[in-house]
User: What shape does this take?
Amino acid sequence: ESLLLNDNEHTLQTLHRLTGRHEARRPRPWQLADAPADAMDRMLRAIVGVLRDARHSALTPQPRMADIEQLATTGAAQPRVEVTLTGELTDLSPSVAAAIYRLAQESVTNSRRHARHATRVTVQVTGETDHVRLTVDDDGSTGSPHRSPDGYGLVGMRERVTLLGGTFAAGPTADRGWRVEADLPRAGAAR
Assistant: This one.
């Protein structure tokens, strides 16, 4: 029973650290018996859900460089998305290839959501000897009130690139539209 109380205490401490609850309001292990069963059930299901999602994502195949071509559109879909892959794009580290794909995907999604009157989005991936460059341009109006250089999507993209040892820039172009540029080392950041 003492071992169970210590284990429960550790679990409560962890949950309270994660949720930011104040130490003084934290229930003691013996108070767990008084907690409604459905609240405990919800909490345990949430924990299992997080663990299951983490385990599942590790087994999910990561996108490859060739998958970027699936972002292209044909027909009357607006804005039209054109994808061009040039240079040496084989032998990229899997994390770099997945990052390039996710950056392109997020950039195209942002253009579709926020680029007013956009008719075209171009995705250009160029493989060089020691790095790979992604450039995504759209021709939409930059005056959208929803378009901000401080958006969470851009922050996440910048963090992803920085973790891999690359550079990132996003903002309006000189004439019209928006540009996202990322330059990553082929092997990712040196560990």
User: Anything to note?
Assistant: The first helix runs from residue 2 to 19.
